[in-house]
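Retro notes (design track)

What went well: tokenization of the new backbones is finally stable.
What didn't: we kept losing track of which sequence belonged to which structure.
Fix going forward: every design gets posted as structure first, then sequence, in one message. First example under the new rule, 432 residues:
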């Protein structure tokens, strides 16, 4: 996005100011000293440059911390490294102190940011600042066959910065559309902290499995406690429990990991197959009435203290169930956009089939696909769904691999694929 928020041009948020001294940091000096002594203990001995790299603080700040540690006789300088930086070795007194600290909290990674700093940055990077236009949506969804009305609804929903209900029959492409939403602003960047500190407790936020960081050489010089990333996309499905929506405390390491909605802040959280989770839909919806309405969420620390964090994300509820049966009118009002995905038309079905054939190196034959569409409708009593071309072509390719042949889109191969894929009307009648 450009400076006006338009998604079709790449944008970098302003670099976060690099602290030049401990006094300029938003975290207590004693906390940083304790973090440094734990890192020194685990590394045995290290150069000041290595310590600065591990704790993600400027060399001048780490040098200031090391002077205090040496004054308290927790570490000593034992020469210099090949570049000329001081080498630090932990003392016996430092080992005792480090073991005491590790028994309380085993976090020994990048220095955290304060909760206040995190809140301010998340608000600055809110999804409500995203602005997209028709060309942005058409480009992001170009690989899918969607009608103009659906694309318009998607674009409107993104500009709202609010939540979305994607619903419709199975195989309509709801999950694919939800995943593609993030591509609309794939070039947009946000700052994600490695961790957040609250009253001496650590909450790990940055997750390399979720957050796609920008190469370091492309990132502006900034406070290295933050990572420049693409706006995140997090997906949860049937495994979702109510506990996963709160802070996860590890009793072994004694620090927290942020929940899914915290990792998805400033991006997209997809609740896939909504209504089929291990928790009742109304329980999940009640948990999120306030976040969806006020854009704040409340998380609970182990001692019972609640903290307030921003809820600056787009939540996409994807379901093949009727939303009216999952939520009451009061909750549905808090989800400003409901997009129903219907079965595809014959022309859309043929275009999807053509694209799938191209992807798999098969020659597309329109007359074969016309016959397939008739068979699906007349023999198997099924509507045309967006997923069928991919699934049928997969069957053709798998059969060809078994037979040691090149896959071809021919009448007999497609008929066998349909027979293997669909239940016959008599089978369905028996199940009923």
């Amino acid at each position: 996005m450009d400076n006006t928020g338009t998604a079709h041009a790449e944008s970098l948020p302003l670099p976060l100011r690099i602290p030049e001294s401990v006094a300029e940091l938003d975290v207590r000096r004693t906390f940083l000293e304790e973090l440094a002594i734990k890192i020194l203990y685990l590394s045995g001995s290290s150069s000041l440059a290595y310590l600065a790299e591990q704790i993600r603080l400027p060399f001048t700040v780490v040098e200031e911390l090391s002077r205090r540690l040496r004054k308290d006789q927790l570490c000593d300088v034992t020469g210099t490294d090949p570049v000329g930086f001081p080498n630090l070795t932990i003392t016996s007194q430092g080992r005792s102190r480090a073991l005491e600290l590790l028994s309380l909290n085993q976090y020994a990674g990048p220095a955290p940011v304060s909760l206040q700093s995190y809140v301010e940055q998340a608000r600055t990077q809110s999804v409500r600042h995203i602005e997209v236009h028709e060309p942005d949506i058409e480009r992001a969804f170009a690989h899918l066959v969607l009608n103009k009305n659906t694309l318009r609804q998607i674009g409107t929903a993104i500009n709202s910065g609010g939540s979305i209900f994607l619903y419709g029959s199975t195989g309509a492409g709801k999950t694919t559309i939800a995943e593609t939403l993030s591509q609309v602003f794939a070039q947009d960047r946000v700052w994600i902290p490695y961790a957040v500190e609250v009253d001496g407790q650590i909450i790990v936020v940055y997750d390399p499995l979720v957050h796609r960081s920008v190469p370091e050489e492309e990132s502006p010089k900034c406070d290295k406690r933050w990572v420049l990333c693409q706006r995140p996309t997090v997906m949860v499905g049937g495994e979702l429990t109510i506990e996963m929506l709160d802070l996860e405390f590890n009793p072994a390491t004694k620090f927290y990991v942020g929940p899914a909605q915290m990792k998805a802040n400033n991006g997209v959280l997809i609740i896939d197959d909504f209504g089929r989770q291990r928790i009742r839909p109304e329980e999940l919806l009640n948990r999120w009435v306030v976040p969806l309405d006020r854009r704040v969420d409340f998380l609970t620390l182990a001692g019972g203290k609640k903290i307030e964090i921003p809820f600056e994300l787009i939540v996409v509820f994807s379901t093949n169930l009727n939303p009216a049966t999952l939520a009451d009118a009061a909750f549905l009002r808090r989800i400003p956009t409901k997009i129903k995905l219907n079965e595809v038309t014959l022309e859309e079905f043929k275009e999807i089939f053509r694209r799938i054939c191209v992807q798999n190196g098969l020659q597309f034959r329109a007359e074969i696909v016309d016959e397939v569409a008739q068979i699906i409708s007349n023999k198997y009593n099924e509507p045309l769904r967006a997923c069928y071309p991919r699934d049928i072509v997969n069957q053709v390719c798998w059969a060809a691999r078994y037979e040691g042949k090149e896959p071809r889109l021919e009448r007999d191969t497609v008929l066998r694929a349909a027979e293997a894929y669909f239940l016959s009307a008599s089978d369905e009648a028996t199940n009923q």
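Added context from the reviewer: The first strand starts at residue 45 and ends at 47.
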